[in-house]
């Protein structure tokens, strides 16, 4: 008998001892478990914490391709879900699974929801998170885009470039940090100016571990190197925190060929006619008999 069948038999007895439990898996690999029962539970290698102020509304389910949605409500606390982690984006797109569980025998359980976290609203020491079902992924447009620039992301399956190739990554400690957005280094020899523009800066230790930002500017100021992000990171980066700075690609064919030697995997259409050519109106041609245009 499966766990779901055992739970169904338990519910058919008339008196039940059930509660709800849900597991949250962040993109940085951290797994957290919660339950609305008054004592902690443990199954599937996850500890489900009680008395966290977490609760979930009923799942709105439908047939066909409709998206199954629900909401999670809870109080912000340092021990469970903190406002700082939400602000840093650590829960954006996190995976969520939910079960109905017999708390007297946790082998009797049934999964009732699987999906991801969507929008999160927070105020007054509490939060409200939208939970999106698995069918929400079907709303993402798929297919190739016909454009001059490359549609691949540097290092992905379409690009295939190995970012760990020597000369394309700088791993170093943070030195001078301003507003969690501007990083100044005393020296970064071996990399041309603008080498990291359009690239990614990833934090690998400290309070901002796991966070990353797109690089807006990469410039040389005297002997110093300045890396500037488009947006500040959501947590504080201190001098000494480990960073990984990856080279950037501006999606042009010339860059793919010269900087990365990866032209065979270029995913753009640089020779596609532009808008001016497509909407050009017919025009009367001048004389094409080879004679003088003078009359």
TrEMBL record:
UniProt cross-references to InterPro entries, sorted A to Z: Phage_phiJL001_Gp84 (IPR011928), Phage_phiJL001_Gp84_C (IPR018964)
Annotated ranges, domain Bacteriophage phiJL001 Gp84 C-terminal: 194-276
NCBIfam families recorded: phg_TIGR02218
UniProt-recorded name of the protein: DUF2163 domain-containing protein
Species per Swiss-Prot/TrEMBL record: Roseovarius ramblicola
């Amino acid at each position: 008998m499966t766990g779901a069948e055992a739970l169904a038999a338990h519910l058919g007895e008339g008196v039940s001892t059930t509660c709800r439990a849900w597991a949250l898996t962040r993109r940085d690999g951290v797994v957290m478990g919660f339950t609305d029962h008054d004592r902690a539970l443990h199954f599937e290698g996850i500890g489900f914490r009680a008395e966290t102020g977490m609760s979930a509304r009923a799942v709105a389910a439908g047939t066909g391709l409709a998206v199954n949605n629900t909401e999670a409500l809870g109080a912000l606390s340092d021990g469970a879900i903190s406002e700082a982690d939400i602000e840093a984006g650590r829960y954006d797109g996190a995976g969520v699974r939910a079960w109905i569980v017999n708390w007297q025998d946790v082998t009797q359980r049934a999964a009732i929801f699987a999906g991801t976290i969507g929008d999160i609203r927070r105020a007054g020491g509490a939060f409200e998170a939208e939970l999106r079902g698995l069918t929400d992924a079907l709303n993402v447009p798929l297919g190739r885009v016909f454009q001059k620039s490359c549609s691949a992301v540097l290092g992905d399956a379409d690009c295939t470039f190995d970012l760990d190739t020597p000369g394309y990554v700088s791993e170093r400690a943070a030195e001078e940090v301003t507003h969690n957005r501007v990083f100044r280094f005393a020296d970064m020899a071996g990399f041309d100016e603008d080498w990291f523009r359009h690239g990614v800066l990833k934090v690998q230790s400290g309070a901002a571990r796991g966070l990353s930002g797109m690089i807006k500017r990469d410039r040389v100021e005297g002997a110093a190197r300045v890396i500037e992000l488009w947006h500040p990171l959501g947590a504080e980066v201190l001098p000494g925190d480990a960073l990984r700075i990856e080279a950037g690609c501006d999606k042009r064919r010339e860059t793919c060929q010269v900087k990365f030697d990866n032209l065979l995997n270029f995913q753009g259409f640089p020779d596609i006619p532009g808008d001016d050519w497509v909407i050009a109106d017919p025009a009367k041609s001048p004389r094409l008999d080879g004679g003088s245009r003078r009359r």
